[in-house]
Amino acid sequence: MTITTILEKLPYGEPFLFVDTLEYIDEQKVTGSFTFRPNMDCYKGHFSGYPVTPGVLLTEVMAQIGLVCLGIYLTGGPEGMTFGLTSTNVEFMRPVMPGEKVTVTSEKIYFRFGKLKCRVVMTNVQGEEVSSGEIAGMIINPR
Amino acid sequence: MDKTALMTTIKEVVAPYTKNPEALATLNEDTDFIRDLKINSANLVDVVLDVEEKFNIVIDNDSMEKMINVRSAMEVVENKLAAP
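Output (structure tokens, whole complex):
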């Protein structure tokens, strides 16, 4: 499956699409990136007068690239498939400011009985680790 | 492996995933993983993977779907261990 096809099959839309592109994908591993738009609504209040990307959105980027893109690749992304986030165990090391680009690399720990669990690392453009952890989700196949 | 040892091992495997310590303390063959131990379906996958590792067996989809309580889990393990 090509990267273009995976991006087309992503079940997200504005304002909750957090994947710009994928740089690499195979059955074990995916790398992708996203740039946080400075005009995103969340920056108006997180924090007031001091915009920093919320950790939940860093987690969301990690999940969309690391779990959902890889899940689409592994299953072929059949029509009607849905995803459910089941667990996150993520640490945050550095703040991500408006306009910053982050790169996510995710390695499959296992994909068994519909559950995909990955070790996910996010870095900034300086190559510094921003956040990392383990994220898992269930892929619910319509058939 | 006798049944008591098998049940003890299964009890050890499910312990980290259960949300109901009372049901774990009184675990028996009829204990249901979801209804009694309150293990969610995502963690049930981890239970099955831990059972595989503990007994060095491979559990297929059909067997996984049967593993709803302690009795059926013990049967799956016994059958896999007895298989040539």
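The mean pLDDT of chain B is 95.
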